[in-house]
Write a structure and sequence with these properties.
The strands form three sheets. The protein has a seven-stranded mixed β-sheet with strand order 2-8-7-6-5-3-4, sandwiched between helices. It is built from twelve helices and twelve strands. The protein has helices at 20-28, 41-60, 74-91, 108-119, 137-143, 166-175, 195-198, 247-285, 312-321, 341-345, 350-354, 367-387, and strands at residues 8-9, 66-71, 99-103, 123-127, 148-152, 179-183, 202-206, 217-222, 290-292, 302-306, 324-325, 356-360. The longest helix has 39 residues, at 247-285. By secondary structure, the chain is α/β, with parallel strands linked by helices. It is 41% helix and 14% strand.
């Protein structure tokens, strides 16, 4: 008799599996080994395929008036933008713009880049969000001024799924004469994003969030904006990112982008139905839970729930024993015992923040999977609450 529990992977915001079409694109062309910087036939073939992938990524994000720079992922792309701002400040004349703004709920690679610059003596302001994780527009308006050089705001939060009003924010930033960067890693492929229409200067994307390979991402830079290399060396990427091209990774990225371009609207519709089924099921079967994030402006695949009286890691491990793989927050912060900085920024107390689980759906999740979670989770929470010294009733 097989007592192995059903497996349900519902942590797609951390990473997605490779689509079969992406695997095929990478393996079918594995013999395209030429160095894309070489001028001979093998090199030209590799370069042509890389440029085809670049076009697919560009089309996905509507990059009609800008360039795509391939990187090792979203973190490198974000760091490249902050490095550029530091270089601008270092090389500018006295009394030039020298202030950087970001928000309290950014991904660690953005927040820590900003804090690193602050520790070096640069002027950095971290803007607050409301209880749903939305940037407080009045705080942004009050902070913007003649000294503002740069503003970085993520389009959608990786933990609670809240989607920012990027077009409104962009208009305010551009009116102030500052550069605007959007970390769009979590929203690309889940919602329609058009960099040109949003009038952003820089935008970040990562392949492994859209069913592509890990270790490859891209930075969109609008034509004419400054961009300094983070990695120095050869002439690759027009001198902006040195290093031999990751042929297989970039080709897989291109195929994933091509598929995402065709499926984003379908994805959003199907994931929102499943997410709502999960939310309604948990609200009906588990008392006193709290749904985090914006009730409407939220990624179609993301549900963040606080379970008073139960600890997040205990919930995660108990669910894992039942074959359900979830997250307590950002995978990039999973080694930390501190409560989620995102949830704390929304005003959630440490106890509730520690008792939160992120469900992030993706292709392959079925109604049966959702119903299995709704069946398995209530007794887990009841057991953990019975053992807990925390008050939740």
């Amino acid at each position: 008799m097989n007592n192995k529990p059903k497996k349900v992977y519902i942590d797609y915001n951390a990473t997605t599996p490779l689509r079969q079409e992406v695997k095929a694109a990478m393996t079918d062309d594995i013999d395209v080994f030429g160095n894309a910087s070489s001028m001979h036939a093998s090199g030209r073939l590799a370069r042509n395929m890389i440029e085809k992938a670049r076009t697919a990524v560009s089309d996905l994000i509507g990059a009609k008036n800008g360039n795509i720079v391939f990187t090792s992922g979203g973190s490198e792309a974000n760091n490249m933008v902050f490095h550029t701002m530091r270089r601008l400040i270092e090389t500018s004349a006295p009394n030039s713009r020298d202030e950087i703004l970001t928000t309290a709920i950014e991904h660690p690679c953005v927040l820590n880049s900003a804090l690193h610059l602050k520790n070096e003596g640069l002027k950095v302001i971290v803007l607050p969000v409301d209880e749903y994780g939305k940037l407080k527009i009045d705080a942004l308006e009050n902070a913007l001024g003649s000294n503002t050089l740069f503003v970085s705001v993520m389009s959608a939060n990786n933990e609670i799924g809240t989607v920012q009003d990027i077009k409104q924010i962009a208009a305010l930033v551009k009116k102030a004469g500052a550069f605007f960067h959007v970390d769009a890693v979590q929203s690309i492929g889940k919602t329609l994003v058009n960099a040109s229409e949003l009038d952003v200067d820089y935008l970040t994307i990562s392949a492994h969030k859209i069913y592509g390979p890990k270790g490859v991402g891209a930075l969109y830079a609008r034509k004419g904006v400054p961009l300094f290399p983070l990695v120095y060396g050869g002439h690759q990427e027009d001198g902006l990112r040195a290093g031999t091209y990751n042929n297989a990774g970039i080709l897989g990225f291109g195929k994933a982008a091509e598929i995402a371009s065709a499926e984003t609207e379908k994805y959003a519709k199907e994931m929102s139905v499943l997410r709502d089924r999960l939310k309604e099921g948990l609200l009906k079967t588990i008392p006193k839970i709290k749904i985090n994030g914006h009730p409407k402006d939220v990624l179609p695949n993301t549900l963040n729930v606080s379970f008073p009286g139960a600890e997040g890691e205990a919930i995660l491990l108990s669910m894992d024993m039942q074959g359900i793989e979830v997250s307590t927050g950002s995978a990039c912060a999973s080694g930390s015992l501190e409560p989620s900085h995102v949830l704390l920024a929304t005003g959630l107390g440490p106890e509730l923040a520690h008792g939160s689980i992120r469900f992030s759906l993706g292709w392959g999740i079925t109604q049966n999977d959702i119903d299995y979670i709704i069946e398995v989770l209530p007794p887990i929470i009841a057991r953990l609450r019975a053992m807990s010294t925390l008050s939740w009733k």
